[in-house]
Amino acid sequence: MNKLDRMVSAIDPAAACTEPAMSQGVHDLLAEIVATPPALRRGRSPWRRPLLAGVAVAGLAAAAVVAAPMVSGPSNAAYAVTENSDGTIQVTVKELRDPDGLEAKLKAVGIPADVTFTEAGKQCARGRFVGADLAYDPPNTQNMTEQQRKEFDKPDNWRSRDVAVSINQDTFVISPRYMRPSETLVLEFRPGNYPGMRWVFLPYLAKAGSPVAPCRPVKADSDEGMVKEQARN
Prior knowledge:
This protein has helices at 3-9, 13-16, 24-35, 38-42, 99-108, 146-152, 159-163, 223-232; strands spanning 67-71, 79-84, 89-93, 113-117, 122-124, 164-168, 171-174, 184-191, 199-206, 217-219. By secondary structure, the chain is an alpha+beta fold. It has a five-stranded antiparallel sheet. The longest helix is centred in the first third of the chain and has 12 residues, at 24-35. Residues 3-20 and 36-75 have low confidence and may be disordered.
């Protein structure tokens, strides 16, 4: 065995891999981290998509909506309107009454709106206004060409589905970025008749310059059918 071999054989592999000693401060910090519940270490809890209350449905990240009271009323008010830090408007509806009052609150936060509350099993007849997109009066897609279908599916043609989205059984969020100047947000509400639905709301955008005529109640579409259609989408 030459001199180099003897030097190599004298090295203790375990000693070469020994971890450096940790100070008492590091030990204390590690113990604190281990003792902290996982939910607190994450900083936020997972967001579960709630059971839909209206027709328009979308998942909304909890961190994106931080409500700051802007326009509200007493705790027993039929509804409350707040402005969120991300520019969206959060609306909580406890009772289907005083639509003019809700319109006024929405106007105060910059949302031109037409609000209608109908009785259970009723909705407003079509033709009240000219829709700003295809959501209010969608064309028949049965004989569309591939190019027509691509045009039909463009997100801009369905802004009404994104402008007002329910997040739980009595609250929905309005996103003004989906509205264009002079458009009116048309909201139709009625009591729900499907399990888990407190009320149903139909959001539409009326084209700029198009007046919104008074509601003429007619038999409503099936709530169950709308829920299933929304689930497919």
